[in-house]
Amino acid sequence: MDIPELPRRIHTLGEEPPAVHSISSRSWEFSSSSKNWDLIDEYEELKESKLGVFIKFQELGFDWASRLVHYMLGFQLDIKKKYELWSLVGPKPVRFSLLKFENLTGLNCEYIEDLERPHSAVTKELTSFWEMLGVHLEAGPSTQEIIAALERCEGWSRDDRKRLAYLAIFTGYIKGRKYSTPTRVSLARLVMELERFENYPWGRVAFKVLMDLNSPGLGVHSSAGIGC
Questions:
Q1: Per the structure, how many domains does the chain have?
Q2: Is residue 6 part of a domain?
Q3: Phi/psi at 85 (nearest 5 deg)?
Q4: β-strand partners of 87
Q5: Number of alpha carbons in the 13 Å side-chain half-sphere of residue 151
Q6: Is residue 210 situated within a structural domain?
Q7: pLDDT digits over 164-184, tens only?
Q8: Structural domain contains residue 2
């Protein structure tokens, strides 16, 4: 796959506005106390997994400048293509697309039908794990519930601890919702099949979340039309 050409810099190197905001304010809630991640023995394995890019971004202290983001969103263009973000930078329109997102993150961005509503059977194992999490069976876990579970998971099996860590990435980085807001249960249930969860196109899910947040008034309603 050819790496797309990235747009020119808006600011001269060394003269950028200060970056004082976290890449995800919700994700930092997991690392505010290092003991949460210390409970996960497989931390390094997770960091090298297909979802490890989120942990690496946080460890890099990858922050952003509100002035730059406000500038780009203030000159955002209303376009017909879904899941592309176009902004006017000087006299030139600049596009941020799924293809660029995929190349920047290395996440799986493949197209699948029913992206946010995959089917997972409600098994005894799933029911038992949701009870361990302290989460209602018909809801996905919230950031608050995952943090609480991280503090009591020492005696859990290796697979269950790995499931918990993946759900921490899902709730804190991919979805990034408010502290007590449940996530989509159909996506969270995928964690019961670890290989399926690891290979799911989370890049496409994360990109959809990003577009929904940054294009609330531009007619973004469905993931079916995501393009590169």
A1: 1
A2: no
A3: -110, 120
A4: 76, 94
A5: 12
A6: yes
A7: 999 999 998 898 777 789 999
A8: no
